[in-house]
Design a protein that fits this description.
This protein is an alpha/beta fold and 356 residues long. It is 39% helix and 13% strand. A six-stranded mixed beta sheet has the order 1-6-5-4-2-3, with helices on both faces. Strands 7-8-9 form a three-stranded parallel beta sheet, with helices on both faces. A two-stranded antiparallel sheet has the order 10-11.
């Protein structure tokens, strides 16, 4: 996982002591020897507080690690803080789980979250401008070309963060962004199949966020790099979409070739379609063909056979993206390092050793 922007470590309680109850405004008042109303005035910058009192309250806040409840503040002040998410999809697992992480993080900090769905028929400039004019900040999910194009159109003065595909080595998004290293994850998945004795690995591609070629995108690049490192010429990728029907069409094509013994799919929905196509063609999984998916969608463990796949922490990406945005919206927000699981290969029943 990678994040653009600077972070600093925050203090943590000793795990051996168990979870600590968060300090309340009344705890601060008691420690400083003042009323809770006085603490509230200090927190909100009210001028009618003596400097000595202000100093004691701030010392108590620092000593207790007190953090203002953003939800209560928003209700008390009448200030509604909002975030708008721009995304082209809310159904596929990666998008939906990223949205879930964004919603959890924004709700915990007292922000409301809205979603603006992007479609190819949109006037993209007008859609982005309308979302920006609504106030608050923007989070763009840029896993595809439409999302990436929307991110490019966000005005420079608008607070914005993004969740994106892993950029090319040395490249850096123009806005604060977070991404997972799915390039290396695809490389690991491909190497796993080669280690099982498969002579090559075919790839069912997802559309990339940039370029129109099936061979574009970090997952395709990781797959190809693994084959090239093993001295194997990469076969042409197949696939035209994101969903199970696209995977089924690609799987029918692969099933007709008896030399195909291993397939890496750009996501689990594609893998679902590939498994069905192989079944209809009489190709057994994993006895005849090994299949690996990507993302570890909830259904993957319950397929027959259960799907070997790459687990991605999309919820963590969403939470981290909100953190990047919040530091732009609230200059007093604490900048904490992201806590995000790295992609990992989950080996299940659909991958196995190549048989003669």
């Amino acid at each position: 996982m990678s994040v653009t922007g600077h972070t600093r470590s925050a203090g943590r309680s000793d795990p051996a002591q168990g979870p600590q109850k968060a300090a309340s405004i009344r705890d601060v008042a008691q420690a400083a020897g003042v009323s809770h109303q006085t603490v509230s005035r200090v927190i909100n910058g009210h001028p009618n507080v003596r400097e000595e009192t202000r100093r004691r309250v701030r010392e108590a806040i620092d000593a207790l690690g007190f953090r203002r409840n953003a939800t209560a503040f928003a209700l008390a002040s009448g200030v509604t803080r909002s975030v708008t998410v721009l995304t082209s999809n809310t159904l596929l697992h990666g998008y939906a789980a990223t949205l879930q992480g964004l919603e959890e993080a924004s709700r915990a900090e007292g922000y409301t979250l809205g979603v603006r769905l992007l479609t190819p028929e949109d006037d993209l400039d007008r859609t982005v401008a309308s979302a920006a004019d609504a106030g608050g900040g923007l989070v763009v999910i840029g896993f595809d070309r439409l999302g990436a194009a929307a991110l490019d159109r966000v005005p420079a003065h608008v607070p914005c963060a993004a969740v994106v595909e892993a950029p090319a080595p040395g490249d850096k998004p123009g806005r604060p962004a977070v991404w997972a290293d799915d390039r290396e994850a695809a490389r690991t998945a491909t190497e796993h199949l080669l280690e099982l004795g498969h002579e090559t690995v075919h790839y069912v591609a997802i559309p990339a966020s940039t370029g129109a070629r099936r061979s574009a995108g970090p997952r395709a690049e990781g797959w190809r790099q693994a084959l090239e490192s093993a001295g194997v010429v990469a076969p042409d990728p197949v696939g035209k979409g994101w969903d199970a029907p696209s995977g089924y069409e690609a799987g029918k094509r692969l099933a007709r070739d008896p030399d195909v013994t291993a397939v890496l799919c750009g996501n689990d929905d594609l893998a679902l379609g590939v498994l069905r196509a192989l079944h209809h063609a009489g190709r057994r999984v994993p006895e005849d063909v090994s299949v690996i998916g990507f993302d570890d969608a909830p259904h993957s463990a319950f397929l027959t056979p259960s799907l070997t796949t790459v687990r991605m922490d999309f919820q963590g990406l969403g939470r981290t993206a909100f953190g990047l945005l919040r530091t732009q919206l609230d200059t007093d927000a604490e900048r904490t390092p992201p806590v995000l699981a790295e992609p990992s290969l989950i080996v299940r029943e659909s991958s196995g050793r190549r048989r003669a």
